[in-house]
Amino acid sequence: MIETTAEADVTYVTVDRPHRRNALTPDGLDALQAAIEECETPVICLHGAGSAFCAGADLDVVADLDHEEATAFAEQGQRVARVIEESTAVVVAAIDGAARGGGVELALACDLRVATPNATFAETGVRLGLFGAWGGTHRLPRVVGEGNAMDLALSGRTVDTEEALRMGLVSRISDDPSEVAREVAASDPVALERLQPLLRQQGTAADRERAEREVFAALVTRNAGTLRDG
């Protein structure tokens, strides 16, 4: 269900279940978590096989869950999203085709979301009597703002790539999102590893600025020779 290929400084992680629009089962979530955790390159490119990015949770699985099992499945999806978000690699979601429900939520956990013109996005759970429970209720407002998050989550409507870009759900539009992953991988890997958590860091402005100063000074010391030559 999860295929991994490493090339140079980018690991390509593919959700490979096209007959189910790459919907994820518990086993699929476990495999995705392992693929992210085992990555040794500075950049990961996450994408889906076939005509969809990811349809989220496999609803055939969800329909058979009891209360305890549903809680565990939500916790599992939340854990995988945290693993993506906290990875020391820069994770680029390469979105082509449909991203739905949990697929949107996994994309929200990535550092960059790069979509093709054919991509579409929807938090469709509310139309099924559900909602996104893989961290979407806190990541979606953070990424697109509370107003847009309310609109998307409460209506369940589908947005295209252009609208997703305007609201900040998409970082960039590209015919080949993997090119953006390679572009990021061309940067200094240590700088990438130190910068990424700073951009995500929560806390007071003073705390964030202190951490920023410390990382900046460490990188200046490390790269002094390169800076002089450049």
Please, could you describe this protein's structure?
- The chain is α/β, with parallel strands linked by helices and 230 residues long.
- The protein has two domains: 2-184, 2-enoyl-CoA Hydratase, Chain A, domain 1 (Alpha-Beta Complex); 188-229.
- It has helices at residues 26-37, 59-62, 67-86, 102-109, 136-144, 146-155, 161-167, 177-185, 189-200, 205-222, 224-229; strands at 2-7, 10-15, 43-48, 52-54, 90-95, 98-100, 112-115, 120-122, 159-160, 172-173.
- One of its GO terms (molecular function) is catalytic activity.
- InterPro entries: ClpP/crotonase-like_dom_sf, Enoyl-CoA_hyd/isom_CS, Enoyl-CoA_hydra/iso.
- This is Enoyl-CoA hydratase.
- Pfam families: ECH_1.
CATH class of the largest domain: Alpha Beta
N→C terminal distance? 45 Å
Order of helices and strands: EEHEEHHEEHEEHHEHEHHHH
Second rung of CATH, namely the architecture of the largest domain = Alpha-Beta Complex
InterPro entries: ClpP/crotonase-like_dom_sf, Enoyl-CoA_hyd/isom_CS, Enoyl-CoA_hydra/iso
GO molecular function, one term: catalytic activity
Pfam families: ECH_1
Family: Belongs to the enoyl-CoA hydratase/isomerase family.
